[in-house]
Structure formats: structure tokens, C-alpha cells
Amino acid sequence: MTPRTDSAAPFSAATTTVADAPRSELLQSVVDVARAIFGAEASSVFLLDEEADELVFQAVSGQGEEFLVGRRFPAGRGIAGWVATSGEPMVVDDLSADPSFDRSLAESTAYVPNALMAAPLISDARILGVLEVLDPSPQARSGVRELDLLAMFARQAAAALRVLTPERVREAEERAVSAGGALEGARREDALKLLGSLERLLRGVG
To answer: 182: exposed, middle or buried (C-beta count within 10 Å: 0-12, 13-18, 19+)?
Structure first.
């Protein structure tokens, strides 16, 4: 099962690049904010490595944050794989009754949730990865409105992440030679502003 993308060249969001430091900071902010907003026990961002056809844990807040970052699994596995493939958000109130849930994969992470919400990270019609919140509060998973909020948050996070893709970073580095490094800093600030603006919005309506 191969995640849906457009016809452009593969985008390996999980590839190690010079963007790692600002990207890691951005993604950690994403999972920390998502966990707080939805009252979840844990939150994770998986980025898609299209060349390897794998999803990679890139940031974790809560359960598993000490050892899961960098772990890979096939892109078609579990609910995260379904969300990456379909490009649609998903909420499951009872994972024990859902056939899409890969319990063996969850057990291998040392945390088996009872419920979860997940949304794709989509920018420019490309799926960059998946944002999950595990065991969100009952109120947060009680309706379509909350899932829409998570999907909106994921889209905004993807837009911020797209600013920090390897291609953009290389462009920034080339221009920074003549601009004293200001351009790269500006791009990084743009990404964080995008995330910050959505965080304020979500906290205001959540």
C-alpha cells in the first residue's frame, strides 16, 4: 500500500538534512501543542519517507518520547498508514473493535492506546506524514468538530514544515551567503509563526 502523493519527484520528509534542528523544534512544538489541546496521553508526528515507503517517528510528546523518535515502520501499516494512504483524518473511540488498528505495532512501542485521532500532514497536495493524538479526552473525540480542528492543525503544521523542506533549506543557504544568514532565519520564523497562529486559534475555540 503506497501513500497517495502527486506526480512530482519523491519528497522524503524524513531524510536527515541540515534542517534537522529547526525542523525538530517545529515538530516537537506540534506534538506538545496537539497533546495539550486535545487532552491526550501522548501525541506523535510520523513523516513519510517515500523512497523507503516507510513512516518515521519524528516527534513524540508523552508516552514513548524517550525512545520512539527515529523508529520506522511500513507506510501502509495501522491507522497511521491508512491516514497516510487515504489522506483523510480518522477518529476511533474503541481501538479494540477496529480492524485497522495494528495492535502488534502498538505493543512494540510499549504503549497501547484505547482511542486515537489522526490527521494527515498535507501541503501542496502532498502527504508529508501523519499527526496522531493517543487517548484524547472523551470531549475531544466526541464529534466531527474536534476532528476537523485536528485536521486543520495538521494542515497548518504541514505548511510550516514545508517551509523547512530540504529544497527550501538549500535555497535559503545559497541566498544566505549574500544576505548574512537572514533569509534562513526568516523562513524559520515564518514556520513558527504559522504554528503559533493556529495554536492561538485552536485554544480560543477549543
So the answer is: exposed
Reduce the secondary structure of 123-182 to three states and give it as a string.
Answer: ECCEEEEEEEEECCCCCCCCCHHHHHHHHHHHHHHHHHHHHCCHHHHHHHHHHHHHHCCH
64: left (phi over 0), alpha (psi -120 to 50) or beta: left
Report residue 72 as a C-alpha cell: 520506522
Q: For the whole model, what pTM was predicted?
A: 0.73
Over residues 87-128, the pLDDT tens digits come to 999 988 888 877 778 788 888 777 788 899 999 999 888 899
In the numeric block, the cell 500532514 is attached to: 121
User: What radius of gyration, in Å, describes the C-alpha atoms of the chain?
Assistant: 16
Cell numbers standing for residue 188: 524559520
Residue type at position 50:
E
Q: What is the spatial distance between Cα 124 and Cα 186, in angstroms, rounded to a whole number?
A: 21
| DSSP letter, residue 67 | T
Q: Which three cell numbers stand for residue 137?
A: 479526552
